[in-house]
Design a protein that fits this description.
Elements: H1 2-8, H2 10-22, H3 42-57, E1 66-69, H4 75-87, E2 92-97, H5 115-120, E3 133-136, H6 139-155, H7 159-168, H8 172-175, H9 179-189, H10 193-203, H11 216-230, H12 234-239, H13 241-257, H14 261-264, E4 265-268, E5 271-274, H15 276-285, H16 289-301, H17 314-324, H18 328-351, H19 358-365, H20 369-380, H21 396-406
Length: 414
Amino acid sequence: MKSNEDHDHRYTRALELLEQHTGHHIDIKKIEDPAFTSVHDFNDAYKIIHELLWKTLGTLEDDDTLLVNISSGTPAMKSALTVLMALREYRGKCVQVLTPVKDHNEHVENPDYDIEEIWKNCADNNPDAEDRTRDIKVTHLVNSRDERLIKEMLQNYDYHAALKIARSIDDKEVTSDYIDLLEFAWKRSIMDLKGAGQINSRLNLKLLPMQGNPMMSQFEYALCCDLKQRRGEYADFLRALTPLFVEIFINVISRQLNFPMHEIIDVSINGPSWNQPRLDELADIEGNETAINIRETLELKYPNNFNFNGFVSSDHLCTIIRKLINNKRIVDLADTLRNNVELKLRNKAAHKMVSITGQDVKDITGLSVNKIMGHIKDLFKFSDLDISADHEAWNSYDNLNNLIMGYMKFDRRT
């Protein structure tokens, strides 16, 4: 192509003739790269064309559109242009120009090539000539890329990002089978259980394994904590533990002592607090032995300064568990979570701007994040939920991911 241009300027002359024919000014710029000799190598073509496109885009006005002819050049060059325009999302269009015979061009060297004569006889210059250009959208390539990104977000449990990508896909038919599932997963992962429940009901699916159970919110919160550690968000994971410990400890005490802890604890938006009048009523008027023991246990642990009208802490509850529950496994689990995790590390993560790695957690607590999560799951066995650490419900997010990925059209493995 370069030798032909150097010989008779046929390409620039053709553009000049086109300019005269259309009355549209054409600013001709020749870009030459003598070092680009491996024109059939896709990798080289991709790199060089990518750089040229970026330089060209920098010269465009806001309302300009870059038109890229993908019908000329070597197969490697045409492929590189198509891939770049599709996946890099340049502000432009791919244009394919069909040959007059709707087949490949015959390349015959003509030493007597006369651009003036060829132009004069060109049928494309007739007013009724067929428009042989086609806009190429390569939507399948773009959709395949986007679904691959969605899959990566799912594997990292980043449902907000996955949903955002899905919503950006223009062809809504692509995501029609799973867009609602992505919204469900996102709402569930931010503890919007009402919104998630509405989608679950609309889809008529059983995506919330503990739906209807009084401990559902505690279980879902535990799953959200698990997501944080799976994503490597260890500081956020640790900060989220105290509310979970308090809720589990309360429920474990209720079940193991067969005592209505909800009667002596008030729950508000600020957190659970002790209800001293009701505790005194149960202990002094009704003579409830467990109520008496709970009050005595707390008074002995915190002599002269226990506030029975203050907030309930995991330390209060752990003291009750240690003193009144005759089950070594429960006591060991509560002590470990309270003393090894919350006291040693959780408060540090909550009150200081620190970076915490998985190794930091293990060095300070003696437990890996997976082990901490395992202890939490073990403790649920002794609550009203009564499920073991290996119960399938703990895998519900992975099962949900597999369900969503099963509906994907372009990244499906066959």
